Prior knowledge:
Number of strands of chain C: 18
Oligomer: heterotrimer
Order of helices and strands of chain C: HEHEEHHEHEHEEHEEEEHEEEEHEEEHH
Number of domains of chain A: 6
CATH class of the largest domain in chain C: Alpha Beta
Shape of chain C: globular
Number of domains of chain C: 2
Structural class of chain A: alpha+beta
Largest sheet of chain A: 7 strands, mixed
Strand content of chain A: 25-35%
CATH architecture of the largest domain in chain C: 3-Layer(bba) Sandwich
Radius of gyration of chain C: 21 Å
Amino acid sequence: MSQVNRLTNGGRIDRSQPLNFSFNGQSYQGFAGDSLAAALLANGVDIVGRSFKYSRPRGIVAAGSEEPNAILQIGSTEEAQIPNVRATQQALYSGLVATSTNGWPSVNTDMMGILGKVGGKMMPPGFYYKTFMYPQNLWLTYEKYIRKAAGLGRAPTEVDPDSYDYLNQHCDVLVVGAGPAGLAAALAAGRSGARVILADEQEEFGGSLLDTRELLDGKPAAEWAAEALAELQGMPEVTLLLRATVNGYHDHNFLTIHQRMTDHIGEVAPMGMVRQRMHRVRAKRVVLATGAHERPLVYANNDVPGNMLAGAVSTYVRRYAVLPGRKLVLSTNNDYAYRVVLDWLDAGQQVVAVADARTNPRGTWVEQARARGVRILTGSAVVEARGSKRVDAARICAIDVAKHKVTSSGEVLDCDLIVSSGGYSPVVHLASHLGGRPTWQADLLAFVPGEGLQKRVCAGAVKGVFALGDTLADGFEAGVMAAAEVGFDAAVGTLPSVEQLNEEATVALFQVPHDKSTARAPKQFVDFQNDVTAAGIELATREGFESVEHVKRYTALGFGTDQGKLGNINGLAIAARSLGISIEQMGTTMFRPNYTPVTFGAVAGRHCGALFEPKRYTAMHAWHVANGAEFEDVGQWKRPWYFPKNGEDLHAAVARECLAVRNAVGILDASTLGKIDIQGPDAREFLNRVYTNAWTKLDVGKARYGLMCKEDGMVFDDGVTACLADNHFLMTTTTGGAARVLDWLELYHQTEWPDLKVYFTSVTDHWATMTLSGPNSRKLLAEVTDIDLDKDAFPFMAWKEGEVGGVPARVFRISFTGELSYEVNVQADYAMGVWQKIIEAGKKHGLTPYGTETMHVLRAEKGFIIVGQDTDGSVTPDDLNMSWCVGRNKPFSWIGLRGMNRQDCVREQRKQLVGLKPVNPQQILPEGAQLVFDPKQAIPMTMVGHVTSSYMSAALGYSFAMAMVKGGLQRIGERVFAPLVDGSVIEAEIVSSVFYDPKGERQNV
Amino acid sequence: MLNIFCPHCGETRSEEEFHAHGQAHIVRPENPAECSDEEWGDYIFFRDNPRGIHHELWVHSGGCRKFFNATRHTVTYEIYETYKIGEKPSVTEASVAAAKASAQGVTA
Amino acid sequence: MQRYSGFGLFKHAFSHHENWQRMWRNPTPKPVYDVIIVGGGGHGLATAYYLAKVFGVKNVAVVEKGWLGGGNTARNTTIVRSNYLWDESAQLYEHAMKLWEGLSQDLNYNVMFSQRGVYNLCHTLQDMRDSERRVSANRLNGVDGELLDARQVAEEIPYLDCSKNTRYPIMGSTVQRRGGVARHDAVAWGYARAADALGVDLLQQTEVTGFRKENGVVIGVETNRGFIGGKRVGVVTAGNSGHMAKLAGFRLPLESHPLQALVSEPIKPVIDSVIMSNAVHGYISQSDKGDLVIGAGIDGWNGYGQRGSYPTIEHTLQAIVEMFPVLSRVRMNRQWGGIVDTSPDACPIISKTPVPNLFFNCGWGTGGFKATPGSGHVFAASLAKGEMHPLAKPFAMDRFHTGALIDEHGAAAVAH
């Protein structure tokens, strides 16, 4: 299809590079340099979507990031689907496939549109709060249909093929926006030698310079922009980021920039390229040169395709050589909008009329238009657009702005394009992200950035400096100032000359009056994307929604993906008028990131899948994998859970592993336990203060179990600590608690007891630990070590230094299984070799590798706790029946002592750790099951505790459990019941929590 | 994201390297056994939680692992100073109020 | 009160919606009220409503420094569930749940309470144990709950990555099918309208600057609009509770932290329920408008700025993409923060205070929205009688002295 609306000359497009694309299944052609929106307009596409609530046909309104309507689905394959792409910000590429997001069967003939027309009358703002309430149980059904109708585009159903990343950046000056002010600021700062980042959201640097009719030094402004860009490109300290939206301004001058690296090339990034990148920038100074958005006027039927922003039409004509119509009517309240008239005439097209709300406009461009024969109706405005799927006429009436009244019956003029301009709203978003409220400047009819704590300066239109020459000067000054503030000498330079235009004041017109009341006039749209009308805003205020936030929330004003860039100021002006207060009193809503939407994947960066969080492996991991281990996630560690053989399931494997340890010998990779090296003359005293038990008498060469509490007296970690020398200890912690405990020790040392001479070093990764456990462990270890393992030379709870497997080792004779055990620690680099030697030597001793599950069963048979499984942060040592581990008479009031003496911690009937023996020895209580004394009671039942650990014991031949039970230690021999989800009840006897070898003889042989 | 000067490292680094530990200058009672339950509860749980100037404890967990204090405003998030454990803050609620008062005095 | 219905909408369409009444008045303060509620968020408005409706106390003012429902009510992720571990919490939140069921009809205001189901995913063996414990406790407490295995999770939640390829593969999930979401603003507005109709004065733009006491007993509040007398005063100011306590002359065991959330652009339905993961740390639902509503974690430092740090948002989206890889190409529209008052045991404080006749309801931390009706109801009962409601009693402030905490932190229940 030919590009019916394309001019034969001009524009910044490359006519030698035609690009084919499709929209709603139809093939079209555009040119390199087009935005998708420009290409659609070039091909005469009027309707790009259907509105959200009323299903009204909608066309392209704007040319930039403020576009509310042209929100399209892009993607030719399922995995490449991109929802909600703003056509004005999407570069055209060959093969682009776009579709509308709403409309059935098509956007041109939409069935919902009929419903929207009829039902629309019943859908004022907040209608959903007033209905769908009865009957109560039908809401989910109503909701199903509401949900189906809502939403814009759709997420892909397949996984994203692209990758994303982020980059940390530091700079002296970050310049946001590369329009006239931004380019000037970057030049000034760049010339000073400062490290500068210049970021712009568009496909080209230059902003309004790319389409303005004004000249710089007598040449097209774009030429000056190109020269400026060339100079910046030559500066080694300047980074230029294109297609890069500064989307968030965070505390302490941290800003994020969302850069689209390949979206202009295709829907999926080429092989080896990153689709999008986040720049995480810490800037010493920020220059905000974010410009301004033109505001549309609000008039009846202003949403019919063919209603556009005046400036956007100039952009389409001059930058893209596209004519979005033929017969133009302008409705304006300001001078600057007249450029569209001149541009339109230059393009050889017909200007039907200009309706100017001012009574006597005489500015430079006004006069130029008048001189070229344009009919200017002063004191007038377009009050109503006519047409259903495309504008076919405009009704222009005389209006009284102050009284908000139509004062003539007006005339209806045939046209196919109504453009409007209600003034310019500075883009204050970034300046306001940190809560600094923008302030209303009545002379400018605009909110400008308010005060902020951040080290930033605003330049150009964002602070209400609109004239081109002033903007350039302001930007330049901002760049000089920002660089100077961080120590770079102000650079000298000249600015191009600009013809000074005579501009007259804008008149405060937001909503154009209609001869009918707002409620009865045809719909006057304020927020296109959310179908918010002037009548809706008036209704909200009538119903008592008086705060700007209430109006926003009740009407959904500004809630769209454009975040109200076009509609918000008009909306609050309408609300203010309706409430009889000023716009200043009305104030704005909060501005929040993002300026424009940011891809989830880009924010997530590389940190997904394999890189979501580090995986920690022990030195023997490869062996575990090779030997078929199943793994368990414990903290960040991958620990062998069990080693199934010949298709065993968990239970079979664990039973086999358990018996091997009880009857022969097993080996466990215990490297993940936290290990903290503690040195210093006060190390022993420190241990006394952080452990519940006493450390004064622990001899060199000995090890002891310790329990750690928080100040509230609740158990927080445990482990064995060995005395390596009088001033040197090695502490072990739980696997998950290692980092937490180290922080804890440092906290107390550094903030409470800095006088104690003691040092802590994490050595978790330095040492690998292999636990040999079982009656054969001594015989086995003897074959690979030079250490004397005689039971008297190397008794239980002692440790020795020597060689194991030919490398230096520390061997601890401690036991978590109740069997004769040795924990062999070697430097992690040697560990795989040592492990393999032990495995080899262990063959004749029946050595069996076992995992965490078997470890859990074996320790539970002995009643040993696992902090975090048998405890939950509400359990004291007494509750665990571990008073033996509490040194109440230690001289220093150690951490936890006072806490565990509080009223509630010493009361009767606390939950206590006990053993449970199911009456049916084959039944295994579910871990976590709640317990009751009376299973027949009605719900809600009185619960008395829960099962913390539960297993089938191969050694004992019956199931058993550990549990917290109210007053449990006084109830040994009594029964508890676990009512299960399936209705069954497991009955169990309360017993001692030590099931196996209660006298502890086996570990002490 | 906050930008924090570590008084031990002598460098300003991004918040990601640090962890906050709540209110600073909470001293563990000398003799816990003599504390009532109420006093002990106050020590471990009750906090000033001000809307304004806050002295707080931080640790440079991804750096030197040392603790230090910061004076920060809990509404603007401005950090006025960081200082080592054992040192006193130079900016306090009182000093800010005094500075404000004297500034007004000068202009008046 | 003008009654709302579908027929009403139809009728008003003929008069171009010009005749809808105000939802609430804008009254001038009376000199003295029986009860003053400080804080016009969901909890405060609910308290006022139940005082007037259930407990017959109609001479009530709600004093709000900004606009109704403008704090955490306006900023939360709208999740409602009651599957808490400990008896005390479960009973309180279940009390709220029962009031949620029927709230739209009670208020004649559609709060869009949508029982879409709330899933808490399990990624480790300990998650599974904790979940079994919680579901078991819920069921015996009369709160619905189920524990699903990985296969069931995959069947019930489309697009969730239930493969073994994830960093923390999903092993199972709890689900509370009666849980879901509600329209947050509507809850505040619905209570406000209904309370106003019963005679409650809703005083917006009225900031409390102090508490006036006589012989140590509170007799009213100082405000920017002058003194307002109150025989009893209930403070329900969430993140600003610490500040209020300071004005009243005592401290609370609370810290105010930023809690962030974000929404995507609206997309067609893809997430049908509420899905939460503690281990991966993200939670997500989809609003009726099509936005994905995503909650982030709490920032570690105290903050009243209603904004937090960017890395918190990054971690959250990493978790979301890790859980739902198909959402990678969807875009985040907007992010924001609230101020949550977190307590040491992740449970609220509903309590008398050292000042007679002054009551506080605070410390809801990250979990306040879901409790709104229950919190309001028990607090109203307590204010009406001057004695704490039985469901509120365990949440007294003195538990931080006696040590009788209700430690939901220690439990598997995610704190949102």
